[in-house]
């Protein structure tokens, strides 16, 4: 149970300060009674009790508040006082060749926080801190490596790879703020390996990826089969390396994005993100030449069927235009092209899906040129819609 305390959302820390203070007092009494010799032999869960408060360092990393000497003993970096000076905000960081065995360890580039420009392979081994860890969440706080090549958008200069867990797409380029969930299996399974391969042209690379270890019974655990998992009534989903100006849709992608169905919400609306300062949005450009107007394309069809999605697509179960009255009697599962709409059109529309749980699947094959040019990928804002009585 104490293991879960380490993983409580950050928001609880502010209200948890008083609780931590109570723990601190009781621990201080225990320490007085038992002496420092015994403390070295306390079971690991007792140590975690100190760390139930999350804290943040001035450099932006999150850590756990714990006694300075325990932080150092566990290989952490004391990053400043917390809990009224009683503890230190303990940050865990690892880079090439390192091992991450603490919840919240950051995988950073060599020279962090400066950039690195070497070529080679940088590997981090993630070990479960407890057999009851089922998932690993990677938060790309900061992530910038060389992007894909410009013809077929394949990550063959730099690559970020995850191995040892559930399949994850190879990514490259910029993915600040993105995340991934990796299934780590049950029990003491094999480690998960994170690898950044850097090769080719000189580039100022930098990354800071936070690794959270999620217990099998945690409410924060993602639903099965979801590479990305979002909670909340509204939010934004986007493909990796998305940027309307310089991003390129990555090839060889195949994964699911899940959105937790919030209580009393029955359907979901998706709208292409705004593309500020442009008269033609590029926030949904999966196929065609994105340097000119490309209509939406829908449905699977067979190879060569006009206006259908046979190479790259976003799957939205039974998607319909949201504000058409009366509502269309048919729906589509795949959308691609250069305009976001559940019908073939060159005008963007909001799309609705009533299939629960709310899920999207993104597929991109290994070919872009010559048909697909300068595709950016997708960025969609979603808003869950309340259930109505009728
Ligand atoms: Ca494409």
Automatic annotation (TrEMBL):
Designated name of the protein: CUB domain-containing protein
Domain of life: Eukaryota
Cysteine-cysteine disulfides: 155-172
Domain CUB positions: 96-214
The keyword Signal is annotated on this UniProt entry: yes
Protein keywords: Disulfide bond, Signal
Organism listed in the record: Aedes albopictus (Asian tiger mosquito)
Signal sequence region: 1-18
Cell membrane as UniProt keyword: no
InterPro entries: CUB_dom, CUB_metazoa, Sperma_CUB_dom_sf
PROSITE patterns: CUB
